[in-house]
Amino acid sequence: MKVSLAAPRGFCAGVERAIEIVERALALYGPPVYVRKEIVHNLHVVEDLRRRGAVFVSELSEVPAGSVTIFSAHGVSPAVREDAEARQLRVIDATCPLVTQVHLEALRYAEEGSTILLIGHKGHEEVEGTMGEAPERMRLVTSVEDAERLDLPADTKIGVLTQTTLSVDDTRAILEAIQRRFPGASTPRKDDICYATQNRQAAVKALAPESDLVLVIGSENSSNSQRLKEVALARGTRAHLVSDASGLDPAWFDGVQRVTVTAGASAPEHLVRELLERLRDFGADAVTEFVQVEESVRFPLPPEVL
Q1: Which position among 92, 183, 207, 208 has the lowest Cβ density within 10 Å, counted as fewest Cβ atoms?
Q2: How big is the CA angle at 297 (ends 294 and 303), to the nearest 5 degrees?
Q3: What residues are annotated to the active site?
Q4: Has residue 75 been placed in a domain?
């Protein structure tokens, strides 16, 4: 069995930055350091940081007044920031800069008087944070059907935003449906879907047609990891999302000669290495890395951890 290892894969610049912020905060301020929600959507990362003294909470009401508190990479709404200020929390913001860019676009559209259509997944933390920037002006669009059902006049001033971790292909179809309904709709000055999401999907698109099976390493609640699996399935290739090597099912490999392995943007590289080692038990005898594009993006850290 031959294994193709997709590149780029795994951590993106926003995830690396968020994890480093927690690590530095623990070193500078000492535990406990509180983190609202999961810092990134990966159970292994969260458990590692928890062992080192990070305390993950669902809401700020669980955080003692005055404590060091980190906002996750997915961003938060202005209401959450106001709550943190009222509780006198020492906030360190680990929001991915690309998510912050979408928040700023939402504010710009709102100031222009536009109705904002946010393409995204209901309930995702990034979507909740973005919608909180202009809740009275924003509508969530989750599908082409949603776009076609919008009860707005055709001449409505429309601004379109997208969640950063969506499927490039699905987003394009929804955007085209919006533009058919609202020909004058404004789109962002720069594509909202992050560079890492696009690059990882492009690598899978290139490798999936040559594979019998695609394995994606990532957590179930990781949007970009789920999209990688969907990209492979859309190309007619069997695909599974696993959190680590323990999730592999021997039955998946019956008759399989070519496997592609990739990892979502919040999955650490050691999980990839462990999975490749496990694949040897299922007959893997060669691993070849295929590089779709080189990544060199890095985001600066906030002053609180420098």
Answers
A1: 183
A2: 160
A3: 126
A4: yes
